């Protein structure tokens, strides 16, 4: 039972990190970022390369992946998305194209070299990230088996969720983001630099995706396609929780992650995903705007 709980909570935690970035990005900018999953993948490969070439362990890889994915997200926003605001279909197609390009670049570079550095034995890019030994040994406490690495994932997610809440509800920047979510035109009329705030928001959401990639790499194979399914699950969480709602995102990630973990252990991953999609459809029919969303006036 403890294994089921920890698997469900750790899956929920990673879903939450992915969905937080998607939620605030779409809420503030109206951008459906199909390349968000590839930013997760970039974070995972950053951790792999940091271990191979810099000798950095998981704890140093986390901030490095946040910065790397965040800067890449900022570059994507400045070069591409900034020119497509208000054109939701165009941004969807453009970021989908970015996702394909990033996947192919990783395949090509990891088959030969990565940014000019020859990487031995990586082949097509399949790789595993080393997890510190003390995070791999289960600990029994009063008959309850504690999984250190999955507990670490939960703790990191709680800290980043708390940081996101503080940034959104206790800082001037967060007030500006929430104003843009409600009405970007009025926010601009009040003197808010919408483009600057949107760029920083996109970079922060991309950084969270990078951290999710590192955590995911601890128990899944790192490969160029790893972000494709993650971004779908992230969008499911956003739709169920309600666009721009931090509380809804947390609750939806918990529900869907636990359902996926429990059903996968009792049957298999295919049935688990089918059950998750069925639950999402049911929740959408019941609450079309999500469990929590801004009220229209």
From TrEMBL:
Family: Belongs to the binding-protein-dependent transport system permease family. LivHM subfamily.
Transmembrane feature ranges: 43-76, 88-106, 149-168, 202-223, 235-258, 270-287
Keyword Manganese: no
Name of the molecule in the record: ABC transporter permease
Stored InterPro entries: ABC_transp_permease, ABC_UrtB_bac, BCAA_transport_permease
UniProt xrefs under PANTHER family: ABC TRANSPORTER PERMEASE PROTEIN, BRANCHED-CHAIN AMINO ACID TRANSPORT SYSTEM PERMEASE PROTEIN LIVH
Localization annotation: Cell membrane
Entry keyword set: Amino-acid transport, Cell membrane, Membrane, Transmembrane, Transmembrane helix, Transport
GO BP term (any one): amino acid transport
Keyword Protein transport in annotation: no
Recorded GO CC terms: plasma membrane
Lineage start: Bacteria, Pseudomonadati, Pseudomonadota, Alphaproteobacteria, Rhodobacterales
GO molecular function: transmembrane transporter activity
Membrane topology: Multi-pass membrane protein
Biological source species: Thioclava atlantica
Pfam family, one: BPD_transp_2
